[in-house]
Amino acid sequence: MPTPAATLPRPEADPVGFLRALFDIAVARAQPAQVIRAHLPEPPKGRTLVLGAGKASAAMAQAVDAAWPARAPLSGLVVTRYGYVPPAWRERPGRIDIVEAAHPVPDAAGGAAARRMLEMAHGLHADDLVLCLVSGGGSALLPLPAVGLTLDDKQRINRELLLSGATIGEMNCVRKHLSAIKGGRLAAACAPAPVCTLLISDVPGDDPATIASGPTVPDPTTCADALAIVDRYGIGIPDAVRAALRAGRLETPKPGDAAFARNRVELIATPSQMLDAVAQSCRRAGIAAHVLADDMEGESRDIALAHAAIARSVARHGEPFPRPCVLLSGGETTVSVARNTAPGRGGRGTEFLLALALGLRGERGIWALAGDTDGVDGSEDNAGAWITPDTLARAAAAGLNPRAVLDAHDAYGLFAATGDLLVTGPTYTNVNDFRAVLVL
User: Fold this and answer.
1) Cβ(211)–Cβ(201) under 8 Å?
2) pTM of the predicted model over 0.85
3) CATH class in words for 32-269
4) How far is 347 from 351, CA to CA, in rounded Å?
5) What superfamily would CATH give domain 5-29+271-439?
6) Contacts of residue 115, Cβ cutoff 8 Å, sequence gap at least 6
7) pLDDT tens for residues 71-110?
């Protein structure tokens, strides 16, 4: 729930503290314990099987276990990222098994969990219920290869996709068609039991078929779409898999399939809800807040330059918004790394911020914070970072060339040197990127 306005630092006195408090509000709004109870179905006549995957799935399972009637049968399995099991669950596990696996590049533990889920889904009856808990990251955490692929293939393809600049929708289209469990296949395995899917969205547009590659949702994309994406970005796939895609042999269950006749899908936390909660808290504190968009996609540095142009206009001319104010945005940007180039230490948030600082050129009165609400920006230990009007000057004083650092995709090192990394540890949720630009 939104933080009371009285607890927000005054932005003019502590701009960075104010921005950090906004990030905390964003994360709090998407906590499963806050939102899941209102969406739970009634217990069925038979048993309830919980299945799930994602960075928030362990916290979702914890919330379900706490809210589900003690006398109603409850069991199941969810898989989350290493380190994303809430401490209270580690100390006192509940009725649902929680296992950990690798993200963003999958490992054998995720494959084993996916196989277990399919085995648990077999033999269900019409009076049973499958409660599927899905959040961002679930696609990499359920790496069950389609026929003709190995785990090594999946790992390599995933790495290439992550560095290609492909959108999350494009990546997940490929992942669905190269999987034995995603793209609606898990729901098909659960039939005739009804499936209730509760989703925490980390994708622009909140498309259930894209979140975690839609393991329980019909897939409107095709093998031809997946093959076109693979070719567009030069992703290498085995010849046998290419032939299978071309022939349509790896097609996913489609809308209208009988397997989804008794299924229900609900979004329980989304980027727009997160940004609205932050904006409301700002306004209660007397600071105008403007949500630019909750579904921004594109190169991080390009999105940064657009934010810089708006922020400069606000600072210099009071247009399109009077100052002081906060500009908010969400979505999932990308960082394209040239093939055969070693990626630097950085992620979407830090790349955005360094490009923003360069675009602002030290403009007075502007601070900004960007971070991933799951607590990990890319593959490092930070959620993101922040910038101040003197970020570029402090970086130069540390002997760094900000433009060269940006070109090397190595923003983590710069913000580590300036002491401006946002480090939160696991947040146990995931509604994707959060960006806030404060103009005083």
Assistant:
1) yes
2) yes
3) alpha beta
4) 6
5) MOFRL domain (3.40.1480.10)
6) 144
7) 999 999 999 999 999 999 999 999 999 999 999 889 999 9
